[in-house]
Amino acid sequence: MQRRRMDPTARRRLAAAALVVAGLALYPALFPGALNLGVTLVLYAAMATAWDVLGGWAGQLSLGHAALVGLGAYTFGLLTQAAGWQGSVGLAAAVAAVVLAAAAATLAWGWVTFRLRGPYFTLSSIAVAEILRLVATNARRLTGGAQGLFVFSLPRPLGLDLFDRTVEFYLALGLLALALGVAWWLSWSRFGYYLQAIREDEEAAMALGIHPLRYKLGAFVISGVLTALAGAIYGVFLSFFEPRGVFNIELSVSVALMAIIGGTGTMLGPLAGAALLTVAADWLRVIFQQANLLVYGVLIVLVVRFAPRGIAGAAAALARRWSGARSAHPAGEGLEHGLRRASGSPQG
Questions:
Q1: How many CB atoms lie within 10 A of CB 25?
Q2: What is the pLDDT of residue 328?
Q3: CA–CA–CA angle 159, 165, 170 (5° rounding)
Q4: How far apart are the C-alpha atoms of 258 and 59, rounded to whole Å?
Q5: Could you give the 3-state DSSP secondary structure of residue 146?
Q6: Cα separation values, 328 from 5, 154, 287, 302, 334, Å
Q7: Phi-psi region of 241 (alpha: psi -120 to 50; beta: other; left: phi over 0)
Q8: Torsions phi, psi of 265, nearest 5?
Q9: Which residues contact 102 (CB under 8 A, 6 or more apart)?
Q10: pTM for the full model?
Q11: Which of 40, 104, 169, 215 keeps 20 to 30 A from 330, CA to CA?
């Protein structure tokens, strides 16, 4: 069996992602007084990149990812606080529990809802998130109910204070690097090409021998685990949270918007969208005060109007125009070429 070699374009994408992560690593040194904004930005970038695994690469529009953020926050918070899982071993076990809980939840969730397509799947994702919010609100003995949950005591692995904003920033940055690594892998791997085929035409993908449910479930598990880990860090960052905050549909919509505005199905697009919307929201809140949401909405409309393929798509178009390069393949041939490479069939 011939070994598939990585596309040179994939190497360039990996180098670009490494440069971005290295640049972000300088943030605490350059902006020590704005670490709250920095942690928020990097966490949202990680969530948006995780959402894009399902919403962008697989084409399954979810507006219920806040359920996974809340699942991660509550699983980690309850195990380390109420159950008393302390020490480095307890902390590692709590993180493992977050991963297992997210994987189990997304498998069950996807098995039921992936039989629905288009807007019906989107509506079902909202319903699942709302059900989990109601469960967390009413299970007072377990979650604290509407009174919320305090995260006030955590061990110090390797002497690190997990409540320190700089430590939280680098934890979030590590998760973002992991999410970008997954997006990079999807950009050239067989799994990624199959997801794109399902996104473009599920019936045609089935005719090629691709099992849509299997690959969509795989994408959902990856997306869910990354999102739940972001939720665990988010819960520590907040120190106090309640169901209305971490299971809120507004959080789901914000994360989806960041990925869509940045450019779905791209490696750095969700990060760019998160940076734009997070920084813009913070800046507009200071400048325009009560009118900030109106201006924020106008900004989103302008981006969608003049960059329908997102920031990443607009940047790629500008780069092609600047270099004078033209695509050597007609539209859609890139995916066809990728599927041929993935299946190992000869190129005609």
A1: 13
A2: 43
A3: 75
A4: 15
A5: helix
A6: 21, 55, 46, 31, 10
A7: beta
A8: 70, 25
A9: 68, 71, 72, 221, 224, 225, 227, 228, 229
A10: 0.89
A11: 215
| The residue to which tokens 């979030």 are assigned | 172
Residue type at position 346: P
Closest CA to 223 of 311, 339, 105: 105
Q: Which residue shows structure tokens 């041929």? A: 340
pLDDT tens string 125-142:
999 999 999 999 998 888
DSSP string, 270-316: HHHHHHHHHHHHHHHHHHHGGGHHHHHHHHHHHHHHH-TTHHHHHHH
Instruction: Reply yes or no on whether the pLDDT at 37 is more than 90.
Output: yes
Q: Which tokens hold the place of 223?
A: 């997306």
Q: Is 80 helix (H, G, I), strand (E, B) or coil?
A: helix
Q: Could you tell me the two tokens for 286?
A: 């200071």
Residue 193 · residue 335 · CB < 8 Å:
yes
